[in-house]
Design brief:
It contains 18 helices and no strands. The chain has 318 residues and is mainly α.
Length: 318
């Protein structure tokens, strides 16, 4: 992980001063653990450091190093307890808060809310730290606490403008918090960096559809279908946009494609029925009786298919 060595290194310097403040047995365990750590034998290091802690050497630096060794040994669940103790002993040091939050994101299953709380505690100590700002916001985002995610992600973006890692969760948090006005430009910026990202395109499609920006809806629906030709949500959004623009043939083609891709989608047939009804009405007004009858007949067929597929949702059609 980027920045890992920076967070670990600060604690190691502090920890070296602990050798002569502890009982001899604790010192010996610590020395062995530190040697294992330098040799990148993290499992053995953690075992010796645990013995040192049990022998009374439970200062901040030792606990931080113990948690770090468990993390580097991929035993994130066991890293949490010593890192918690380290943050309690010295809440003014950001590194243990960061590592504790990171441990919560890496354990199985991850606990993103607890991670966010740990990162947030570190952010109070170092309010201008990009990593703590980003991970606080991102963890709240993953915990679906979108309103809480926004401020730290905004801070992260201010500290590192244009950062793609921040742009997407920030834009998505705006959208999830019903603020498409901020979500759209943020996600547009993200899209310039990842033009084929289906998640970004889907959110932009949703926002523009909700806002009634039909030309933009069509743009993102077409892009979504370039990325994934089987994207039924994009087909539906495209059909609705064409309907609102009264482009009946284009709307019909979109819903026919949806019905072909998802034959059990009753609304694909319902909207085809609507389109045939509109076309029949227009033909009737123009005095084109045969064309009107043909369109109304197609509408009835489409509505019947819709009712058969989704009777509870489509029974009100007639």
């Amino acid at each position: 992980m980027k920045g890992w060595e920076r967070f670990v290194g600060a604690a190691l310097v502090m920890t070296m001063g602990l050798f002569f403040a502890s009982p001899a047995s604790a010192d010996e365990y610590y020395r062995k653990g530190f040697e294992f750590y330098k040799a990148k034998r993290f499992k053995e290091a953690a075992q010796e450091l645990e013995k040192s802690v049990q022998a009374g050497n439970a200062d901040y630096g030792v606990l931080y190093l113990l948690g770090t060794c468990y993390g580097k040994a991929k035993n994130w669940a066991k890293a949490i307890a010593p890192l918690k103790r380290a943050t309690n002993l010295d809440p003014g040091k950001k590194d243990a808060h960061f590592m504790l939050g990171y441990a919560f994101t890496k354990k199985s299953p991850p606990d993103y809310f607890k991670a966010a709380e740990a990162f947030s505690s570190g952010l109070k100590v170092a309010p201008n730290d990009y990593q703590l700002s980003f991970y606080t916001g991102y963890s709240y985002f993953r915990a679906r606490k979108y309103a809480r995610a926004i401020r730290p992600l905004e801070k992260a973006l201010k500290l590192r403008p244009g950062d793609i890692n921040t742009l997407y969760p920030l834009g998505a948090s705006y959208v999830k918090n019903d603020n498409c006005a901020k979500g759209i430009p943020t996600l547009e910026q993200a899209l310039t960096k990842k033009p084929q990202d289906a998640g970004i395109v889907a959110l932009l499609l949703h926002c523009n559809s909700q806002a009634g920006n039909y030309s933009e809806t069509l743009r993102f629906a077409k892009l979504a279908l370039e990325i994934n030709p089987s994207d039924t949500g994009a087909m539906n959004s495209m059909g609705k946009a064409y309907l609102e623009m009264k482009k009946w043939d284009e709307a019909l083609a979109a819903y026919q494609r949806l019905a072909k891709t998802d034959p059990k989608n009753g609304f694909a047939f319902y909207y085809q029925g609507q389109i045939h009804s509109f076309k029949g009405g227009n033909s009737k007004k123009a005095g084109m009786v045969d064309a009107a009858i043909a369109s109304f007949s197609k509408a009835v067929d489409a509505y019947q298919k819709a009712i058969k597929l989704q009777p509870r949702k489509c029974r009100w059609i007639y």
